[in-house]
Amino acid sequence: MHAFLHHHAHQYYVLDDPQIPDAEYDRVFKLLQALEAQHPELLTPDSPTQRVIGAVMDGLSPVRHAIPMLSIRTETDTEASGAENFDARIRKELELADDAPPVEYVAELKFDGLAMSLRYENRILVQAATRGDGETGEDVTHNIRTIHQIPLKLPADAPPLLEVRGEVYMRRDEFEAMNERQREKIAAGAKGEKTFVNPRNAAAGAVRQLDSKIAAQRPLSFFAYSLGEVAEGVVFESHWQALQTLKSWGFPVSDGTRQARGATELVAYHRRIAAERDQLPFDIDGVVYKVSSFALQKRLGFVTREPRWAVAHKYPAQEQMTTVLAIDIQVGRTGKLTPVAKLAPVFVGGVTVTNATLHNEGEAQRKDVRVGDTVIVRRAGDVIPEVVGVVLEKRPDDVSEPLNIYKRLSGQCPECQSAIAKEEDEADWRCTGGLFCPAQRKQAILHFAQRRALEIEGLGDKLVDQLVDGGVIKTLPDLYRLGLTSLATLDRMAEKSAKNILAALEKSKQTTLNRFLYGLGIRQIGEATARDLAKHFGSLDAIMDATEEQLLEVNDVGPIVAHSLRTFFEQPHNREVMEQLRAVGITWEEGEPAVRAPQTLSGKTFVLTGTFPTLSRDQAKDMLEAAGAKVSGSVSKKTSYVVAGADAGSKLDKATELGVTVIDEAQMLALLASGAPSISSAA
Ligand code: D41
Q1: pLDDT, tens digit, for every residue of 156-171?
Q2: How far is CA 541 from CA 163, 218, 458, 616, in A?
Q3: Is there a contact between 131 and 115 (Cβ–Cβ < 8 Å)?
Q4: Which of 95, 527, 559, 583 has a Cα at 20 to 30 A from 677?
């Protein structure tokens, strides 16, 4: 049973490739638990049931590392030259001639977690210790045992003494989900609970818990990247070989780890990872280069506590601390009022940041951001910078009150003084001024002009500010009534650029219904919905005249989207704008409405499981949805049918348990054809 559970846990947690249904694993796990309860003499510390131990520690005991845990030298040059400098230094220290072959390196990701040493004696995990000062760390074995990716027991070909070192970290999605759970607990009134600022802090907090039950609820992960003390006689030629062997013994080694020859391949690695960084499921703060050959590592040796054969090559930090100078409220295109923190300038994610979004009032209150606070700002990739949290220890006595948008604005839009409003169940306050509000008008024009909408080249925010502030443009059709004189009289507008704008406006008139609809900036109507609407109805008039029910027939259009469209086209002034836009010459090719399948299965809910003989799951889903059915991911009493293919898993068990009708692909196709369960033997 141990071997079975160890094997399948490894498949699931480390290789991400489960071979059996979760329910089967759970069944055997419970069987083992029952057996151990009846026969305590069978219970061993390496049993898969022993990941969480009941006892709560009094404190963490110090652990002296058998071999010190070194630190790693950091190359602060974040450019590619950092990799070249490292290679040049290695070649010099090894006294390699210019024409000597390239040095073999291992390039690794630099996980942003905390370093850990795992000690196995007789192939059983006996101790896990933090790095501490490198000489002495803390015993956190009780918490580390809860990490499913870390083997409690090693295979027979592993040596009798082995220390594996690596990084404990938390995946970003797990971190977000955990913070969401924390927020729910806090909302429910739980005392002593808090949210975490970033995955690293959350991981560090979890590792140092005294109660392993708490650590077990914090989703930690692990990657191995080096060895500590190892039984005599175990010899590896290279770091690369050691990593491959660790993998074969069941340790998680990152897929991102690569062999690299010479500076060129290190530079390429640095560049590639920089581009992929934001798509990784976890945070990294750089990459690490290591000379692979252990013989060469030995020749290179150490300076103080840092090996000369390794370097950490950083990327620009994505998070920095700074202070909040003010909190402004900005008006967006649809009137949304967004609180924005004005920051003391700080260099983060490769640019200087002075503004960071707080998203909405609720978010600002949850994070409790006040003017005067020290905050952590994050800028990842090209996303707008955001405040991730407050460093409460640094809060001065004279911080502002918590943000209250209504009070701050005395209930008025800061741009047009119209009333502001917030609907129940909505996170955002909005200005009710609509296109009367200059801020909304400006952004509506910019949205209409953008590349993915009408694509009016050269119509940028400076020009739109001038046109709206000068009263030249009040509505979208006014754009097309601009003449050379009205444009050329604007500040700093040369005749040449005025002519270019007019040409761009002329060119934009020939467009498509998708772009036009999207460009109108109707709330909830993104590009994909605009495309679906255009395809479904074929013409603008058909969309303008559609009832909410007819709108609901469109793919992915729900009640909120349908309501938003109806409200927009019911406004006489919006209908007027449509008419004028067509009158100034905006045209597109109209099509025929799409023919819709009869909604024979509306109101029915299906769950698909297993592999079907002819259809892919997506095809089956599309067909069912086209006939008006709902396709759900989990089985409940409300499920009408479970369609089961080969190797159907736990969903099939659940269906049987709840007495939900189970059908196969052929029966589903019959149902689609007839709309009624003509099949008598649906079991
Ligand atoms: O991913 C990491 N954070 C990482 C840290 C890594 N990939 N490799 C590392 N290698 C070492 C040496 C070269 C000393 C074995 C490290 C660290 N050290 C390290 N992490 C924290 C202190 C040292």
Answers
A1: 999 999 999 999 999 9
A2: 72, 54, 30, 37
A3: yes
A4: 559
Domain around 384: 319-409
269 lines ligand 1 (CB under 6 A): no
8 Å CB contact between 368 and 402: yes
The sign of the CA dihedral 108, 110, 111, 116 is positive
Same-domain check for residues 382 and 502: no
Q: Tell whether 564 is covered by a domain.
A: yes
- Determine the distance from the C-alpha atom of residue 626 to the mean position of all C-alpha atoms in its chain, rounded to a whole number: 30
CA–CA distance, 166 with 237 (Å, rounded to integer):
20
Q: Is 39 helix (H, G, I), strand (E, B) or coil?
A: coil
- Going by CA atoms, what residue is nearest to atom 6 of ligand 1? 110
CA distance 451 to 458: 10
Residue 424 lies inside a defined structural domain of this protein = no
Residues 326 and 298 in one domain: no
Residue 121 domain flag:
yes
Catalytic residue set = 110
Distance, CA of 674 to CA of 679 (rounded, Å): 10
Q: Tens digit of pLDDT for each residue in 421-473?
A: 998 878 899 998 887 899 999 999 999 999 999 999 999 988 999 999 888 89
The structural domain count of the chain equals 5
Q: Which of ligand 1's atoms lies nearest the C-alpha of 288?
A: 7
Please list, in sequence order, all residues whose beta carbon lies within 8 angstroms of the beta carbon of residue 232, skipping any fewer than 6 positions away: none
pTM above 0.85, yes or no: no
- Among candidates 678, 623, 622, 610, which has minimal Cα distance to 649? 610
Say how many CA atoms lie within 13 Å of 579 toward its Cβ. Answer: 7
Q: Ligand 1 atom 4: the closest Cα is on which residue?
A: 110
Backbone angles phi, psi at 89, to 5 degrees: -65, -45
Q: What is the spatial distance between Cα 364 and Cα 427, in angstroms, rounded to a whole number?
A: 11
- Whether 528 and 455 share a structural domain: yes
Residue 236 and residue 192 share a domain: yes
Pairing of strands 386-390, 374-378: antiparallel
Q: At residue 368, what is the residue type?
A: D
